[in-house]
């Protein structure tokens, strides 16, 4: 077992059955696509884009074993294990570590608003104390727009200082690159073996230049191969490829992200069951589907013309 590899991650969407259960076989097959033809270095299931907080405890506890059975590398998967109750986060994290996946993405407890840094520190400290594994690698999850529970750079630096390699990095979903830079400055970034991941592929080159570890993005579910092409290119070709990345990200931002990524996967796979959402989220309406289809056709035409 080892720390998650650096690079491009997809915050993987989750396929649901008719009763709202996660189809584990479909999810693992889909994640295999993401790390092969999908262009990604790794996947982050059961996070925000994966509707992790709408997935049953039974499914969240079982999914790591499904990924182990599908023979994913231990450094290729970062499971979302955060929960409002520290005991639930412990259970989800133990399940991941026990299945051979020590890298976990952990939201702060998000029900009680405006907790102190000391209170948030106590939550992560309890998680570490009760999981009791030297293999554990926690990626803190800063997403204030959704959790309404921000993580301060001072708190992140304190956790890193006190717990060393067990606090392995942070996903910054604020959308503010200056915030990502603040976390790098507070911790030393990859030079100090602390891996900060902004959440947009439109930031990927700035992130890598600023000593971030890569990106973890929801829209790389559909556009990871474009990011890979840009990273692999050079000179004028790289600049042109990155323009395609930014155009794809801007397109994704026009729609409810999770529903749009599921619709794109339904079209790619020919499996309409992919559009199922966990309440309270809903699939795209007919007007949104038509607009997304037109936008996708435009993106593909632009890519073809550039080849």
Give a quick set of tags describing it:
8 strands; alpha/beta; three-stranded parallel β-sheet; 12 helices; 307 residues; globular; TIM Barrel
Short description:
By secondary structure, this protein is an alpha/beta fold.
By secondary-structure content and strand pairing, the structural class works out as alpha/beta
Which CATH first-tier class would you pick? Alpha Beta
Q: What does the main sheet amount to?
A: 5 strands, parallel
The amount of helix comes to 40-55%
Structural shape: globular
Write the layout of secondary structure elements.
Elements: E1 7-10, H1 24-34, E2 42-43, H2 57-69, E3 79-80, H3 86-98, E4 103-106, H4 117-131, E5 137-142, H5 144-147, H6 153-163, E6 167-172, H7 177-187, E7 195-198, H8 204-209, E8 214-217, H9 220-232, H10 235-252, H11 257-269, H12 286-306
Parallel strand pairs: 1-2, 1-8, 3-4, 4-5, 5-6, 6-7
């Amino acid at each position: 077992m080892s720390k998650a590899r650096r690079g491009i991650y997809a915050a993987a969407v989750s396929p649901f059955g008719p009763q709202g259960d996660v189809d584990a076989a479909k999810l693992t097959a889909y994640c295999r696509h993401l790390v092969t033809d999908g262009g990604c270095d790794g996947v982050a299931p059961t996070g925000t884009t994966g509707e992790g907080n709408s997935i049953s405890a039974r499914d969240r506890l079982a999914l790591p074993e499904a990924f182990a059975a599908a023979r994913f590398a231990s450094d290729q998967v970062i499971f979302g294990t955060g929960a409002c109750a520290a005991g639930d986060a412990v259970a989800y994290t133990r399940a991941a570590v026990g299945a051979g996946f020590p890298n976990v993405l952990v939201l702060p407890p998000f029900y009680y608003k405006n907790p102190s840094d000391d209170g948030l520190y106590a939550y992560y400290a309890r998680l570490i104390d009760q999981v009791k594994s030297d293999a554990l690698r926690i990626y803190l999850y800063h997403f204030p727009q959704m959790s309404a529970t921000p993580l301060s750079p001072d708190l992140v630096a304190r956790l890193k200082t006190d717990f060393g390699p067990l606090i392995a990095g942070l996903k910054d979903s604020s959308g503010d690159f200056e915030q990502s830079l603040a976390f790098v400055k507070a911790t030393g970034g990859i030079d100090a073996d602390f891996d900060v991941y902004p959440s947009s592929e439109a930031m990927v080159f700035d992130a890598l230049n600023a000593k971030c570890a890569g990106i973890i993005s929801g829209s790389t579910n559909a556009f990871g191969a474009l990011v890979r092409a840009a990273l692999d290119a050079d000179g004028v070709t790289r600049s042109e490829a990155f323009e395609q990345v930014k155009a794809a990200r801007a397109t994704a931002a026009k729609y409810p992200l999770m529903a749009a990524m599921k619709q794109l996967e339904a079209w790619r796979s020919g499996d309409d069951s992919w559009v199922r959402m966990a309440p309270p989220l809903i699939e795209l309406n007919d007007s949104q589907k038509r607009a997304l289809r037109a936008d996708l056709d435009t993106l593909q035409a632009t890519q073809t013309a550039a080849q």
